[in-house]
C-alpha cells in the first residue's frame, strides 16, 4: 500500500534516481492542498451510509428483478451482503483519496473481486451502476453541489469553506472508475 510520498520514492528508486524537482513540486502541491483533501475525505466519509443506501436503492429501483426470487439481492441475506459491499468499496475509496494513491483500493478491495462475483453470480453491471451512483453522490458532496432537489428530506449541506475542489473531485471520480473497471 502506497501514498503520494511512498509512490514518489518507489518511482524514483525504480529509476535509481534521487527525488527530482518535478516530484518535489507535485508533493508541495499535495501538502498545500492537504486541508482541502481532508475536507473532501470527510465530505464522503461522513455521508457514507447515505451515499451507499441511496446508490443501492437507486440500482434496485432501476432493476426491481434484483429483489425478486432469483435476483441477487434476494433474500435479505443477499441484500445485506450487497449493502455491505457498497460500504466496503466506498470505504476503500475514501482511504485512496486520503492517501492520494489507488494502491490501497486495488490491493485490499478490488483485487480478485471480479472472480469472487463471477463465482457467486453477483451481477457486475448492477454493481457498476451502484458504484456509478456512489460516484455522482461523492462528487456532489466534495464539490458542495449536492442539492435539496437531489437529496430530498435527507439533504445535508457540508459545513466547509468554499473553494475549487475540482481536482479532488476528479481524483475521487477516478477511484470509482477503477472500481468499475476492476469488476467489468
Ligand atoms: C475487503 C474487501 C472485500 C470485498 C470487496 C468483499 C466482497 C464480497 N462480496 C460477497 C458477497 C456478495 N456480494 C453481493 C453484492 C451484490 N449483489 C447484487 O445483486 C448487487 C449488484 C451487489 C451489491 C451492489 C451479494 C448479494 C453477495 C452474497 C452472494 C451470495 O452469497 O449468494 C463476498 C462473498 C462472501 C460473503 O458473502 O460475505 C465477498 C468476499 N469482501 C471483502 O472482504
Architecture overview:
- With 184 residues, the chain is an all-alpha fold.
- The chain has two domains: 1-32; 34-183, Globin-like, CATH 1.10.490.
- It has helices spanning 4-14, 21-32, 34-45, 48-62, 76-99, 103-110, 113-120, 124-143, 148-151, 166-183.
- The longest helix is centred in the middle third of the chain and has 24 residues, at 76-99.
- The mean pLDDT is 95.
- The structure holds phycocyanobilin (CYC).
- Phycocyanobilin binds next to helix 5, helix 6, helix 7 and helix 8.
CATH architecture of the largest domain: Orthogonal Bundle
Structural class: mainly alpha
Oligomer: single chain
Give a short account of the largest sheet. none
Q: Which short descriptors sum up this protein?
A:
single chain; 184 residues; mainly alpha; Globin-like; 2 domains; 10 helices; binds phycocyanobilin
In short:
By secondary structure, this protein is mostly helical.
Summarize the helices and strands and which ones pair or pack:
Layout: H1 4-14, H2 21-32, H3 34-45, H4 48-62, H5 76-99, H6 103-110, H7 113-120, H8 124-143, H9 148-151, H10 166-183
Helix pairs in contact: 3-5, 3-8, 4-5, 4-8, 5-6, 5-10, 8-10
The structure holds phycocyanobilin.
Amino acid at each position: 500500500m502506497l501514498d503520494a510520498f511512498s509512490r514518489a520514492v518507489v518511482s524514483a528508486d525504480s529509476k535509481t534516481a534521487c527525488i527530482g524537482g518535478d516530484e518535489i513540486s507535485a508533493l508541495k502541491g499535495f501538502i498545500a492542498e492537504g486541508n482541502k483533501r481532508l475536507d473532501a475525505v470527510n465530505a464522503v466519509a461522513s455521508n457514507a451510509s447515505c451515499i451507499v443506501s441511496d446508490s443501492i436503492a437507486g440500482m434496485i429501483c432501476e432493476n426491481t428483478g434484483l429483489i425478486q426470487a432469483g435476483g441477487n439481492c434476494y433474500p435479505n441475506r443477499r441484500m445485506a451482503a450487497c449493502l455491505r459491499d457498497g460500504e466496503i468499496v466506498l470505504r476503500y475509496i475514501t482511504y485512496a483519496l486520503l492517501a492520494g494513491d489507488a494502491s490501497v483500493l486495488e490491493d485490499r478491495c478490488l483485487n480478485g473481486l471480479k472472480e469472487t462475483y463471477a463465482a457467486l453470480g453477483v451481477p457486475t453491471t448492477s454493481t457498476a451502476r451502484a458504484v456509478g451512483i456512489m460516484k455522482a453522490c461523492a462528487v456532489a458532496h466534495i464539490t458542495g453541489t449536492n442539492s435539496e432537489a437531489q437529496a430530498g428530506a435527507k439533504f445535508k449541506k457540508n459545513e466547509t469553506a468554499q473553494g475549487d475542489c475540482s481536482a479532488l473531485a476528479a481524483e475521487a471520480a477516478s477511484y470509482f472508475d477503477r472500481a468499475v473497471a476492476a469488476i467489468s
